[in-house]
Specification:
The radius of gyration is 24 Å and the shape is globular. The N and C termini lie far apart (61 Å). With 485 residues, it is α/β, with parallel strands linked by helices. The protein contains 16 helices and 24 strands. It has an eleven-stranded mixed sheet with strand order 9-8-7-10-6-11-12-13-14-15-16, with helices on both faces.
Amino acid sequence: MLFSELLKDVPTILETRGDTGVEIASLVTNSRDEVQNGLFFCIRGMRFDAHAFAPQAVENGCVALVVEDFVDVPVAQARVENVRSAMAYIASAFYGHPERSLRMLGVCGTKGKTTTSFLLKAILEAAGYKTGLIGTTGNLIGDKHLPSNMTTPDPVDLHRCLRQMADEGVTAVSMEVSAHAVDMHRLDGVPFEAACFTNLSQDHLDYFYTMENYFQTKKRFFLEGAVKNAALNADDEYSERIQKEIRIPYITYGISANADVFARDIEISETGVSFSILLRGLENVTIRMRLTGMFNVYNALAAASLAMILGIDKAAIKAGLESVKAVPGRVEMLDTNTPYRVILDYAHSPDALENVLSTVRAFTRNRLIVLVGCGGDRDHAKRPIMGEIVGRLADFSILTSDNPRTEDPNVILRSIELGMKRTKGRYVVIENRREAIRYALEMGREGDVIILAGKGNETYQDIMGVKRPFDEKVVVRELLAEMRA
């Protein structure tokens, strides 16, 4: 495709140099990739400025650049206000605008994005749609798994994925929308027929610095024209602020009866949750889900609200919600054949951890044992908060490594321990995560529940920039086999 053709939809072109009639065969973000007729995006990041790597990209086969400042290399260049934004529009054009043939549905918020997107996918499939899913656990076309390493992929990966989905007959896409993706313009130019706002709580302050910055970024997703219809959590205080400025049709959902879509007669048990969904003016729908916890009532309401915006009937909503047995790494009960239960959960923020522990505590017959850590190179402030939460709610805690990344794991553990010491909670510190899990399994007794918090369905542990295989489902299985030998 010609460079000039790819530039047609980019709204922020300031100037071009060289022959923009050059043919482009690939989109490139890594200057070390060897390509033919590549277009290289000179992205300014927090650590590196890719303008400095433009000569290397040209040596490796790139014939054009998208820049914010012209570079002294003899290839065509387009200077734009924001390279990340331009990349989103160019990637869409390069892959033939796949998003235009799909019903795009977004799930935005701190917690609940993954589960809500899975529930929405199930409802869409019950309604007869061939559905794609894009999110933290990877991308799906139906049941076919397409690995991904970001909640919301970068524009090139995103539009390549959407192209594949469209080519394979997908008609609707349930997609997690992260605040990072909004801030980094990964979704610029993508129209969302509908999107929901689940909630806002402390997370990612290593990037956004303040809760207000974090909120303003999420709010922009609903205010800047990408979203055509919205569903907002009426029970989250931040929704009210969005409602004051939003200029598109929206409905609210929640446990509160003043919401447009609300739940009542809620019963939560170890095996699931049942409730009735009421839409004002219409008869209610009784739901019996196999996912448990009050937070999953909210996730179900969010998914149901988006389905209602699309005009999906209550039979499909009920069938979809009730069909989901588990969501990978989200209060996922492992099959261990032990007298105690082992639960895997992705909770890695204070609010998410408290929600999960409070839910599981309600059906724990003996001790609640919690293994927890915090990721390195991320929000430091939440570490003592999470230590205090687990110290207050668990009968016994095991502090261990999560993904330490480039930080000293013992420094992270000491921060968590500061919060733990504010409570009377009993705990032990075992830095090696595998040995920490072994310790938890060995202390498990009849009626105990062991929660492995933080990593969920991740299959690696990130230590000093190296992602080493670490799938907790596999680790638990291996350790139990060793203990039984």
